[in-house]
Amino acid sequence: MEPSPKAIELLTGPAGGALRATLAPTERLTHAVPAIGCTIALTTRRLFVVRDGSAFRPKTGVREWPLEPSLDVKPGFVRHGSGSIVIRLGRDVTSVFVSTGEWAAALQLIGALRARVRRGPADRTPGGG
After folding, report:
1. Which of 50, 8, 118 lies closest to 110, judged by CA?
2. Is 90 exceeded by the pLDDT of residue 99?
3. 5-12 and 14-22 are packed helices; what angle lies between their axes, rounded to 10 degrees?
4. Tell me, what DSSP letter sits at residue 3?
5. Buried b (16+ CB within 10 A) or exposed e, 57-88
6. Cβ(19)–Cβ(62) below 8 Å
7. What are the tens digits of pLDDT across the range 27-63?
């Protein structure tokens, strides 16, 4: 699967530097969704939330989660022009809000993430997207 135009735009934008610095040499970005105050990015191996201004927040500007069975990502309700996405790994819970204009892309990202988690690590190599 080729990266979406939004994924390519993320890599060339300000948040892209912070994200590129964390990617493994064989890891590919496949999905990126602009959210409120951040960008959600999915690679062949991990899920990222890159906060706006992440260059000024070296410890908290980029959050990441491995694609493993215990990672639970669920869409929430859409209200007042935005929808929530809840990311849970163990006791760690993070919520991200996405505008309704980007909601379909967010649901695609969640679907791709769930498919990769079901397939397991063998298919997370480049091209196994």
Report:
1. 118
2. yes
3. 90
4. P
5. eeeebbbebebeeebebebeeeeeebbbbebe
6. yes
7. 988 898 989 988 899 999 999 998 876 555 555 578 9
pLDDT at 123 over 90: no
Q: Which residues pair with 34 in a beta bridge?
A: 39
Under a CB-based contact definition with an 8 Å cutoff, are residues 117 and 69 in contact?
yes
Would you say how long the chain is, in residues? 129
Element (H, E) at 17: helix 14-22
Residue 38: exposed, middle, or buried by beta-carbon count in 10 A (0-12, 13-18, 19+)? buried
Q: What pLDDT score was predicted for residue 52?
A: 77
- Separation of first and last alpha carbons in the chain: 6
Domains of the chain by residue range:
5-68+102-123
